[in-house]
Every structure is written in C-alpha cells, then in structure tokens.
From TrEMBL:
It comes from Drosophila madeirensis (Fruit fly). Residues 91-223 form the GST C-terminal domain. SUPFAM superfamilies: GST C-terminal domain-like, Thioredoxin-like. This is Glutathione S-transferase E14. PROSITE patterns: GST_CTER, GST_NTER. It comes from the Eukaryota. One of its GO terms (biological process) is glutathione metabolic process. The lineage of its organism: Eukaryota, Metazoa, Ecdysozoa, Arthropoda, Hexapoda. InterPro entries: Glutathione-S-Trfase_C-like, Glutathione-S-Trfase_C_sf, Glutathione_S-Trfase, Glutathione_S-Trfase_N, GST_C, Thioredoxin-like_sf. Pfam families: GST_C, GST_N. GO terms for molecular function: glutathione transferase activity. Belongs to the GST superfamily. Residues 4-85 form the GST N-terminal domain.
Amino acid sequence: MSEAKPILYYDDRSPPVRSCLILIKLLAIDVELRFVDLFKGDQFEKDFIALNPQHSVPVLVHGDLVLTDSHAILIHLAEKFDAAGTLWPRQHDARMLVLNRLLFECSFLFRRDSDFMSEIARKGFANVDVSYHERKLTEAYGIMEQYLEGQDYMAGEQLTLADISIVTTLSTVHLMFRLTRYPRLERWFAAMQQLDAYAANCRGLEKLRQTMERIGDFQFPPTSNSQTPAD
C-alpha cells in the first residue's frame, strides 16, 4: 500500500512556508498544496483551527502526522525524502549544528523580522521606528557573518536545512536592509539565489513585498539584484 501524499497548507508570503517550498522543489517531493490566505483571515476558519490551534502556516499533514512548525516539517521531509542524508546529517555533531542554526532562525532572526513586519501591518510604515528594527536585524546579520567564517554554508561546508530555513527569512529582511557591510553573508546569499530550487522563494517574496507596501503605504528600497518571481 502506497504512503499518503503529504499535504502542505501554505501562504507563500510567509518565510517559513517558503523554506518548505524550497525543500519540496529541491527534493522533487510530490505534495498537495492548499492555500490559506493569511491576509484574509483564512487561518481563523473553524476547520483550520481544528487542524492547527496556533492558526499559522505552514502545516503539513502526512498520513496521521500533523506538523505545525516549519522546522519540524523540514526535518520530517528530509528524513523521509533526502536519500543522500546531507541536508539533515546523519552524523550526530553535524546534525546538532544544523539544529542549532534552525533554532537561531526561529528564535532570533525570524522573531525580529516578524516583529518588524507585524508593526508595519499594525501601524503603517510612517509610524514604525525603522532605525530600531535595523539595529535588531543587522545584529542578526553580524551573527550570520560570524557563522560563515571559514565555511561556505551556515552549518559547515555543505548545503543543509539550516541554509534553506535561514535564506527565506533573510531574503525578507533584505527587502529593507542590505548586506553590503557583511561580505561573507552577501556571498552566501548570492550563492543561495543561484540554486534552481530558490525559484520557490521568489514568487512569495514578491507577493509579500507588494502586500506590505500596500498595507504599510510605503515602498521598499529598490535593489539592482532583485529576483524575478517564479512562474
């Protein structure tokens, strides 16, 4: 009997969702996608609350398993579908380093990005202390710059779930705050953008940019290396 197809509930404007979409594309996983419009309140519908009381995306349903955190989803999909075993390393110490970076992304980088974007949505951009958020977010840039000292990726010399999780949030922060003072981080980001699977990030990132500009009544700074949304 064949295993049930995974179902991903998503809104690709969400950075954690986009990390899952990158991994799905990278590993060519056959997944059913179900859109949940966060900006229309679909996450508060009764059926979705029954599935995920946290009323957030992504949510992965895989058979009887329901996962409501992007990092758990990434780990699950890697364990199930990454035959090479490199994205979520089998060796204990290497795996723990990847886990450490995943926890940095969710508790530090994403939290600060979410605080910034949420404040724009609540107050409008004109009423946000941008310099405060710049200090908080560029502190995260400095930490990642240090992570990349002497290595090409966030958790060593090969691509892992750490890079996939971090890059979608970083690309969101990068809409506002550039990387020019962080050369290692800038090189890493450029290399990540060259991955074929990175196309799964682009469409949702552009949709987020347009949504935030409309809600916040402002425009993000122009950039010469902006990515074209994926078809």
